[in-house]
Structures are given as structure tokens and as C-alpha cells.
Design brief:
Order of helices and strands: HHHHHHHHHHHHHHH
Number of strands: 0
Low-confidence stretches: 1-6, 25-30, 366-375
Strand content: under 5%
Largest sheet: none
Radius of gyration: 23 Å
Shape: flat
Structural class: mainly alpha
Distance between the termini: 47 Å
Mean pLDDT: 84
Length: 375
């Protein structure tokens, strides 16, 4: 009986489990340098499989190859997280222990869950869109922000945290997660936008409205102001601000910020120095019309904050976090409420920009006619 052919997009994902077994077995006999070489050989083999299975039909869009290879690594990350939480065993235990022990931390487990579930779903959706010749620009921008936030916090935390002395050559396998998404992001921004078909009169009418005439935007501005204030406060907390409110917060509400693994500290500093200025720019973009950059960048930051908050909240409550740094049970609800609301703000902003983009369109007839032609 002849078995049905496996679609090119799914073949590498189905190979993840046997490859995980193979890497785990090889790790028992190999040194760290051999681990890195094994990982490189696996990636080269995957690219070859993709090319032959798909017969080159999707290589007109090079991001297809990126998404398929990364979908494989997402399955491996899901296997790692499930194994570290005790749901399965015998797949990647030796590799994680010998090659990348920082993946055994609460933060490492959380980013593996996110990669294995959310990123994997995004990869499948974007692969399907490529196969159907549809636009995947918005999904791609959300993925870009999510992946870049994940890898930047992870790498910086490993370099300056308690695991800095345990880094091995296999740590270099994370560098493609910085270089490839950067290149992919450039290609995503170069793709044409799917502009709505709106008359110049409609755009002009929307852009003439003052802020108080747009109740949804008033609410978003208030949410962003509160979010920005909370971002600044937590940044001061991790910078050891001597104020009593900062001292009480870090010991009574979020002791995870003191964890020597350094991931939470890096996360709060990235929030303070990069996300906080973006929140201020968003308020500007909601007040003054024609900020055409806001819809794209709101998607990037929505993905970044969603990933960061999932990892931060999960790590704060995870049993792998040492008990002195876990969130106290008596503040669980306030901790969850503030962090969920914090993550919700950028998602609402991105949704508003996508559903009602007229306020952000350049108010020039030429651009509006171009948007109609693309539809």
C-alpha cells in the first residue's frame, strides 16, 4: 500500500521527534563542539529536505524556507518544555543538561512553550498563506516582534546572568535567531501593504475629528499612559531605586525581578528603554492624524509585549523559579491582573489600527488611489 505524500511544509515538523531522539543519543557521547556541529548538520539537512519535497515550488519566496525550518525548531522547543515539566521523557534531556542548561530555567521553559505553540501556529498560517498566494504581512510583523523580544532577552540574560559561566559552543546556535529574523523583517516591511478602499472624503472626515470625538482613542490613550507609567516604575525597581514603593514592590509583589538568572531584569530594562518611548510615540500617533508608521509598528510591539508578558508571568509562578523569587500567593490576583492588562494594551492598539486605519493613512489622493488599485 502506497502512503500519501507528506506536504513539504509539514515534513520537517514530523521529523522533529526522531531527530530529537537522535540528538539526545548523540549528546551522550559528544562534547559541546560536537553538539554545535550536530545542530548545524540538522539544519542543513532540513533545508535539503524542504527543497526536494516541495520541488522548489515555493522558493520564489525565501521566507517559506525560513518558516519551515523554524517550525521544526518550534516542535523541538515544545518537546523540551514538555520534558522539563515532566509530561514526557527521553527526548532532549541529555542535550539540555549538557548543551544548554539555561533552558531548564523557568524562563527557558516558558519561551519554549511560546515557541512551540504560538510561533508554530504562526508558521503554519504563514506557510499556508504563501501556498495560497495570500498576504501574510500582518502575521509576519507580529511574529517578528515576538521572536526578536524572545531571543534578545534570552541571549542577554544568558550572557550576564548566573549561567554566563556555563555557556558552550552550542550557544552559538542561537545566533541565527537574531540574524535571520532581522533579514526577514526587512523583507516583511518591503512587502506592499493591503490598504483599505476608502474615499478621500472618508479619510478627510476621519482625520478632522479631534481626540475627544473618538472615544475609543481616548480610552487607548489612557491605557497607554497607565502602561507607560507602570513601565517606568518597574524599570526603576530593577535599577534599585531607593524609594520605599520600589522596595516594597520588589519584595512583596514581584520578587522574581530579583532572580539572579537576570532575565526579568533584562526584560524590564528593554521595556523601559525601548517599549516606553514607543508608547509615547503611540499616544502622539493617536492624537495627530497621518502617522502611517503606526499600524505596522503596533503589530511588531504587540507581538513583542505578548511574548514578554507570557514568559514573565509564567516564570514568576513556575516551580522551577526558586521559592524566594516566586510571586507570593496573597498577591497572585493583583499580579495577574496588572500583567494581563499590561499585555492587553498593545494588542488593543494593533487591533484598532487594523480595523479602522483611515486616521493613520497619508491624506494624499495619490496614495488613496494606489490603495484602491491594490484591492
Amino acid at each position: 500500500m502506497q502512503l500519501p505524500a507528506v506536504p513539504g511544509a509539514l515534513a520537517p515538523s514530523l521529523l522533529a521527534i526522531p531527530v530529537a531522539f537522535g540528538i539526545n543519543g548523540a549528546t551522550a557521547l559528544a562534547d559541546p563542539l560536537a553538539l554545535m556541529l550536530t545542530g548545524l548538520l540538522v539544519l542543513i539537512g532540513l533545508c535539503s529536505i524542504i527543497f526536494f519535497v516541495s520541488e522548489g515550488s515555493h522558493f520564489q519566496d525565501p521566507l517559506f524556507c525560513v518558516f519551515v525550518v523554524f517550525s521544526f525548531t518550534s516542535i523541538v522547543d515544545l518537546i523540551i518544555s514538555l520534558e522539563e515539566d515532566g509530561f514526557i521523557s527521553g527526548f532532549m534531556e541529555i542535550y539540555v543538561r549538557e548543551g544548554e542548561p539555561y533552558l531548564r530555567t523557568a524562563h527557558g521553559i516558558m519561551i519554549c512553550y511560546w515557541d512551540g505553540i504560538v510561533h508554530y501556529g504562526l508558521y503554519l498560517a504563514m506557510i499556508a498563506a504563501i501556498g495560497q498566494r495570500k498576504s501574510y504581512r500582518n502575521l509576519g510583523l507580529f511574529w517578528l516582534g515576538s521572536l526578536m523580544m524572545s531571543i534578545v532577552v534570552f541571549l542577554l540574560g544568558n550572557l550576564i546572568g548566573k549561567y554566563s559561566s556555563d555557556l558552550s559552543p552550542s550557544f552559538l546556535l542561537n545566533l541565527p535567531y537574531v540574524l535571520i529574523p532581522g533579514w526577514a523583517g526587512l523583507r516583511l516591511f518591503q512587502q506592499p501593504r493591503v490598504l483599505p478602499c476608502l474615499s478621500p472624503e472618508k479619510v478627510a472626515e476621519e482625520q478632522r475629528k479631534r481626540l475627544y470625538q473618538r472615544p475609543q482613542d481616548v480610552g487607548l490613550v489612557l491605557v497607554l499612559l497607565l502602561t507607560a507609567a507602570f513601565t517606568f516604575f518597574r524599570g526603576m525597581v530593577v535599577l534599585d531605586c531607593p524609594a520605599d514603593s520600589c522596595f516594597n514592590y520588589i519584595y512583596q509583589h514581584e520578587p522574581y525581578l530579583r532572580d539572579p538568572v537576570a532575565y526579568p531584569k533584562v526584560q524590564m530594562l528593554i521595556y523601559m528603554f525601548y517599549v516606553l518611548p514607543f508608547f509615547c510615540l503611540c499616544i502622539y500617533g493617536l492624537v495627530l492624524p497621518g502617522c502611517s508608521w503606526l499600524p505596522d509598528w503596533s503589530l511588531v510591539f504587540a507581538g513583542a509585549v505578548a511574548q514578554a508578558q507570557f514568559s514573565h508571568v509564567g516564570s514568576s509562578l513556575h516551580s522551577r523559579t526558586p521559592f524566594p523569587y516566586q510571586t507570593p500567593e496573597d498577591v497572585w490576583w493583583s499580579f495577574l491582573l496588572t500583567n494581563i492588562l499590561y499585555a492587553l494594551g498593545p494588542q488593543l492598539l494593533a487591533l484598532r489600527c487594523l480595523r479602522c486605519p483611515a486616521f493613520f493613512l497619508p491624506a494624499t489622493p495619490a496614495n488613496l488611489r494606489l490603495g484602491k488599485k491594490r484591492q
